């Protein structure tokens, strides 16, 4: 019944016919409360299509202030796709279509008049593979502030670079070689450099797409610690394949399955008392 | 199944046996392939060496030219009767007469009119101009008698260089027995020497082999290539950037891509015809100039540059684009700050290939008048000019023996030009790569 209502809502916003929606619509709606008391981003009835293939089906989810939301689920379940919708990175993929509403502080980010460039300064992203620019460590961090004109002079920029690197826990390791290429760092350092680069433009939300999948356990631990510290100032959404990681760093967890948001709730509750059969199977390692 | 049934009874074949049985054949195949590869490389290198050896052996003599040392009396009354040192007066004096008299003074026994004419023909017709230049550069020489190195005629040059056989029958060679006698006397007096051929590098084309030089064609090629580079590099890179990164992917862009690939394969003479019809006839661009040549060569090299640049852009990892977009760079900033610098080495390589192609191109330039016989050295983009490959073509067509060695020498200059360009490209690439 709930699904039907949502389907009806959908028809008024999107151009997709109700019949088409009903065909792909899952039988069950999301279990758990998708809303939070203090939302930074609100997503309602989000559908994502790659050509004729639907990758995200009617997902509604809030990202709360000062919270880490982790998204888990088997490969190809759409969690990365959903994450990339939140700062319109999907715009760069040809044939990708997003419907529904995604709001950042009440402003619809898919509004026709909205420019994705300042949006991406507000919603930063850390990618799966560390991708520092092939420039110096300093330039990597300074690039964002420089193009946005966040600082007025060299001294301010130096300070911002230092603060960002400190927040990313990298300053002590690189302070003597800021002019050396960022690509020369180790994998974990590179990923922290990417985080420093992201926080240098003072975003409100940081999206992390499996930030530790290419790192060893020690580097992973450092990044996880960092995520926990960053929570004080930022809203963080993290996609991860590691359930231990989700349990360690996040306050809320969302479980995706084949484009559906199956279940969302407090991390503790999801891991100790999952409501849906699929969630339980995935968490207990029966598949995934 | 067959494998099993065909086994000798009692001894099942193991994988290892099967592998080892085929191993010998596999290694033999590998050795054959290596042998073929090495043969191909050696064959290719042999031909390159043969080509270079042939060109150098034929052409190295062109870098020297035969001169005859003669004491010439620069009498003030014949050169500058008024003593004003006015350049115009100096220029009008009859230097050929001075040279002729100096030569005849060496051979007082030659008195017959025809013989005297024969004697004078040993001196190049351009010798007077060279002497005039020397006198005008240093007017203090007037009134003294100086030893001058006088440029010999091409036939004498060929004789000295051994391209004309002194022992051949007189009727079979261009130099008469009498002249050989004179030459031998001059040689005995140490008055004949081969000196470095500066004329070859400072003069334009000429009907006389000893007076013709590469400078006109070299400057023509330089201006043409400079303008081609200035036109084709930004257009090519811009087109590649737009098509690869910004243009929507639809049937129109597919059509454009197919057409660019086709254009790269169009015979170059077609571009020449196009240039003739469009640039010269329709737009009235002056013919036979570096300007029109550069326009035609730009059209010809654009597809090469676009294709190479697109390949270079494709090879830039998408993660760099995502990283830049992720911190809020606009698409244009992403391209210019991150993608373009990374693609630049590949783009430069493509451009150099295009430029090398343009440097060696002859056919389309024949269509737009670059084949004209041009003596003057071009001083700009709108002066009539010729280019190195066309100059080589023109000289290769000339019957005089002196042009044969000049053809090879010009090829050497062309190759040197090419090496210099490639070197510049390598240095440029290294600079770009070092920025990271």
Folded structure, characterized:
The complex is a heterodimer of chains A (288) and B (436). Chain A has one domain (2-283): P-loop containing nucleotide triphosphate hydrolases (Rossmann fold). In chain A, strands 6-7-8-3-9-10 form a 6-stranded mixed β-sheet, sandwiched between helices. Chain A has a 4-stranded antiparallel β-sheet with strand order 2-1-4-5, with helices on both faces. In chain A, strand 1 and strand 2 form a beta hairpin. Chain A contains 12 helices and 10 strands. Chain A has helices at 2-13, 18-24, 79-85, 116-122, 137-148, 154-167, 171-174, 187-200, 217-230, 243-249, 267-272, 277-283; strands spanning 39-50, 53-64, 68-72, 96-104, 107-108, 123-126, 205-209, 235-239, 252-257, 260-266. The relative contact order of chain A is 0.17. Mean pLDDT of chain A is 85; it is low at 1-28. By secondary structure, chain B is mostly helical. Chain B folds into 3 domains: 2-59; 63-206, no CATH class; 215-434, MetI-like (MetI-like fold, Orthogonal Bundle). Chain B has a 3-stranded antiparallel β-sheet. In chain B, helix 15 runs antiparallel to helix 16. Chain B starts with a helix and ends with a helix. The interface between A and B is medium-sized, with 30 and 19 residues.
SSE layout:
The complex is a heterodimer of chains A (288) and B (436).
Chain A: H1 2-13, H2 18-24, E1 39-50, E2 53-64, E3 68-72, H3 79-85, E4 96-104, E5 107-108, H4 116-122, E6 123-126, H5 137-148, H6 154-167, H7 171-174, H8 187-200, E7 205-209, H9 217-230, E8 235-239, H10 243-249, E9 252-257, E10 260-266, H11 267-272, H12 277-283
Parallel strand pairs in A: 3-8, 3-9, 6-7, 7-8
Antiparallel strand pairs in A: 1-2, 1-4, 4-5, 9-10
Helix pairs in contact in A: 5-6, 5-8, 6-8, 8-9
Chain B: H1 2-5, H2 15-59, E1 64-73, H3 76-79, H4 87-92, H5 95-106, H6 113-120, H7 127-137, E2 145-151, H8 154-160, H9 177-188, E3 192-196, H10 199-202, H11 215-246, H12 251-264, H13 268-282, H14 290-314, H15 318-326, H16 331-359, H17 363-367, H18 388-396, H19 401-434
Antiparallel strand pairs in B: 1-2, 1-3
Helix pairs in contact in B: 2-19, 11-14, 11-16, 11-18, 12-14, 13-14, 14-16, 15-16, 16-19, 18-19
């Amino acid at each position: 019944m709930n699904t039907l209502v949502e389907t009806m809502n959908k028809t008024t916003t999107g151009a997709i016919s109700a019949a088409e929606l009903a065909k792909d619509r899952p039988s069950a709606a999301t279990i758990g409360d998708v809303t939070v008391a203090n939302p930074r981003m609100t997503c309602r009835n989000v559908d994502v299509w790659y050509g004729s293939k639907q990758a995200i089906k009617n997902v509604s989810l809030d990202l709360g202030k000062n919270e880490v939301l982790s998204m888990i689920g088997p490969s190809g379940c759409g969690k990365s796709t959903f994450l990339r919708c939140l700062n319109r990175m999907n715009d760069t993929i040809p044939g990708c279509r997003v419907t529904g509403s995604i709001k950042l502080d009440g402003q619809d980010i898919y509004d026709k008049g909205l420019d994705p460039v300042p949006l991406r300064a507000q919603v930063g992203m850390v990618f799966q593979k560390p991708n520092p620019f092939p420039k110096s460590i300093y330039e990597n961090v300074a690039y964002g502030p420089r193009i946005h004109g966040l600082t007025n002079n060299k001294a301010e920029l130096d300070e911002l670079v230092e603060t960002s690197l400190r927040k990313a826990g990298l300053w002590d390791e690189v302070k003597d070689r800021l002019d050396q290429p960022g690509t020369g760092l180790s994998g974990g350092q590179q990923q922290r450099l990417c985080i420093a680069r992201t926080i240098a433009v003072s975003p409100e939300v940081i999206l992390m797409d499996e930030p530790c999948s290419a790192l060893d356990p020690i580097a992973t631990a450092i990044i996880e610690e960092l995520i926990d510290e960053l929570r004080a100032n930022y809203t963080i959404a993290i996609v991860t394949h590691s359930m231990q990681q989700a349990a360690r760093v996040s306050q809320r967890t969302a479980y995706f399955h084949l484009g559906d948001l199956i279940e969302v709730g407090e991390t503790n509750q999801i891991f100790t008392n999952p409501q849906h059969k699929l969630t339980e199977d995935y968490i207990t390692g029966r598949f995934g | 199944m067959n494998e099993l049934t065909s086994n000798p009874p009692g001894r099942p074949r193991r994988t290892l046996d099967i592998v080892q049985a085929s191993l010998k054949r596999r290694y033999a195949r590998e050795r054959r392939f290596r042998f073929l590869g090495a043969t191909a490389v050696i064959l290719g290198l042999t031909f390159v060496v043969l080509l270079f050896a042939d060109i150098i052996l034929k052409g190295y003599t062109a870098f020297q030219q035969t001169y005859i040392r003669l004491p010439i009396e620069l009498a003030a009354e014949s050169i500058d009767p008024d003593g004003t040192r006015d350049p115009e007066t100096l220029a009008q004096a009859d230097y050929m007469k001075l040279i002729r008299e100096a030569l005849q003074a060496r051979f007082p026994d030659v008195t017959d009119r025809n013989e005297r004419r024969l004697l004078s023909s040993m001196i190049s017709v351009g010798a007077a101009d060279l002497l005039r230049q020397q006198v005008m550069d240093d007017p203090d020489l007037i009134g003294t008698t100086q030893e001058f190195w006088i440029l010999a005629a091409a036939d004498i040059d060929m004789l000295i260089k051994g391209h004309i056989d002194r022992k051949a029958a007189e009727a079979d060679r261009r130099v008469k027995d009498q002249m050989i006698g004179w030459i031998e006397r001059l040689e005995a007096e140490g008055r004949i020497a081969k000196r470095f051929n500066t004329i070859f590098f400072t003069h334009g084309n000429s009907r006389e082999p000893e007076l013709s030089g590469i400078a006109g064609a070299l400057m023509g090629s330089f201006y043409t290539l400079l303008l081609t580079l200035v036109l084709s590099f930004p257009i090519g890179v811009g087109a590649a950037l737009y098509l690869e990164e910004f243009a929507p992917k639809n049937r129109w862009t597919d059509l454009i891509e197919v057409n660019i690939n086709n254009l790269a394969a169009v015979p170059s003479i077609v571009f020449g015809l196009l240039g003739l019809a469009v640039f010269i006839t329709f737009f009235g661009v002056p013919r036979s100039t570096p300007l029109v040549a550069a326009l035609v060569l730009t059209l010809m090299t654009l597809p090469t540059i676009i294709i190479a640049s697109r390949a270079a852009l494709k090879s830039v990892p998408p993660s760099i684009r995502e990283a830049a977009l992720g911190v809020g760079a606009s698409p244009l900033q992403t391209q210019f700050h991150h993608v373009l610098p990374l693609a630049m080495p590949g783009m430069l390589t493509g451009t150099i290939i295009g430029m090398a192609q343009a440097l060696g191109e002859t056919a389309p330039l024949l269509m737009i008048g670059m084949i004209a016989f041009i003596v003057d050295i071009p001083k700009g983009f709108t002066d009539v000019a010729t280019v190195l490959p066309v100059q080589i073509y023109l000289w290769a067509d000339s019957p005089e023996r002196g042009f044969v060695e000049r053809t090879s020498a010009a090829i050497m200059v062309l190759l040197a030009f090419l090496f210099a360009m490639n070197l510049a490209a390598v240095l440029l690439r290294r600079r770009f790569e070092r920025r990271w």
